Structure formats: structure tokens, C-alpha cells
Amino acid sequence: MSADEPPMTAPAIAILAADARNAPDAAALDGSFTIAERLLLSATPDAITWQAMPVPPYRKDYHELDRADSDRGGASAPLPAEYLGSADSAAFLAYAAGKPCGLLLLSTGWNGLAVIDDILVDAGARRLGVGSALLAHAEAWARGRGLPGIMLETQDSNVPACRLYARHGYQLRGFDRSLYATHPGTAHETALFWYLLFNDRTLRN
User: What's phi and psi for 169, nearest 5 deg?
Assistant: First the structure.
């Protein structure tokens, strides 16, 4: 979930459905990144605006957090079995030059929207267009099922991902300062909820 602006010589990216054969590739992905900014949020009845502010740099690794959750009996990682062979969810792996470079987990939410449950770009493949390719694949998946849009959640500490979503037309429509309050290591973070509704001009404008 990091900045993903492709250079001039970006390699071709292939996105394949995950199955029992390639699922282990997800564990090889390095989801770590350095946080040097956080979002400063402002809310009115009509909109949420944001700007990035610098913070002392520190490292975050989603896989390490997932492993800690699993040790406490919480979420497992990195590719839960329920995403394989399901009619209402799906898992995809991105490859560049034959090497795994990204992960996308999708499901159908209670409100009928597609949900990006996880989107991850390997640390060694950032700024190659992998994140953009995964978002395009998520949109194609949602549209192919006749779903009205996509939602996802990230955190105010993941500024590169937020910029990527905004570039792709997602709108920040909600936040929760307490979602991670009991979660060790991320209690200081604010959950951000991004939406891309295909036919709602109030969100696309």
C-alpha cells in the first residue's frame, strides 16, 4: 500500500487468481514500509479533507502485525483459506518478471459493495504501477459482478496508499479514531474509510 507511480521502464505486471499452488507466494511479500507522514483530518457536514504532516520516521510491517494477531487468536495471514474457491470473495497475486510483487483480497460486503480487505505491494516493487494494476483489477472484479462500487479501510499513517486511492477516484467518506484503540502497536492510528461508487456523482466529483 505504498506510492506507486510507474517509472518509464516499468515491467509488465501479471495478475493471477490465487490458488493452493501459488498461495505460498503471498508469504514471500515484504509489506513493510517507513512512515514519515500522517494525515491531518478536517471534517465538515459535507466533506472530509486531509493534508499530510511530517512525523518522526518509523517502520510498519502489516505481516508482522498479522502474525501478532494470529498469536493472540486474531486475524491470520497472509492469505486466508476462505478467499480461495469462494463465490463471494477472491484472492489475486501480482507478478513482475515472474516474481510475486503484490496481493489483493476481495469480498462482497453486507451493503453490496466490493470490499478490498487487503492490498499489498512488495517493498522491492514499489513505484512500478503494481498498486494501480491491483486497483484496476479490483474495479473489474466488482463491475463484473454488477456491484455498485468498492470500499476499503486503511490508516492515517499510510499516506502513500491514501494518495494512490485519491488518484484513482476514491473519496474519503469516514474515519474512526477508536477502531485500533485496543490493538497493540497501532492504537495511535485512525482508521480511514475510502469509497469508489460507480454511479454516484457526489462521490466521484
Answer: 90, 0
- The residue whose grid cell reads 514519515 is 36
For 103, phi then psi, to 5°, come to: -140, 140
pLDDT of residue 3: 46
How far apart, in whole angstroms, are the C-alpha atoms of residue 169 and residue 187?
28
Q: What is the pTM of this model?
A: 0.87
Identify the segments of the chain with pLDDT beneath 50: 1-3, 8, 71-73, 204-205
Predicted confidence at residue 8, as pLDDT, reads 46
Measuring CA to CA, which residue among 167, 89, 161, 163 is closest to residue 120?
161
In this predicted structure, what is the pLDDT of residue 191? 98
Q: In this predicted structure, what is the pLDDT of residue 85?
A: 85
Determine the Cα–Cα distance for residues 196 and 114; give it in Å rounded to an integer: 10
HEC sequence for the chain = CCCCCCCCCCCCEEEEECCCCCHHHHHHCCCEEEEEEEEEEEECCCCEEEEEEEEEEEEEEHHHHHHHHHHCCCCCCCCCHHHCCCCCEEEEEEEECCEEEEEEEEEECCCCCEEEEEEEECHHHCCCCHHHHHHHHHHHHHHHCCCCEEEEEEECCCHHHHHHHHHCCCEEEEEECCCCCCCCCCCCCCEEEEEEECCCHHHHC
Structural domains of the chain, with CATH: 13-204 (3.40.630.30)
pLDDT at 166: 98
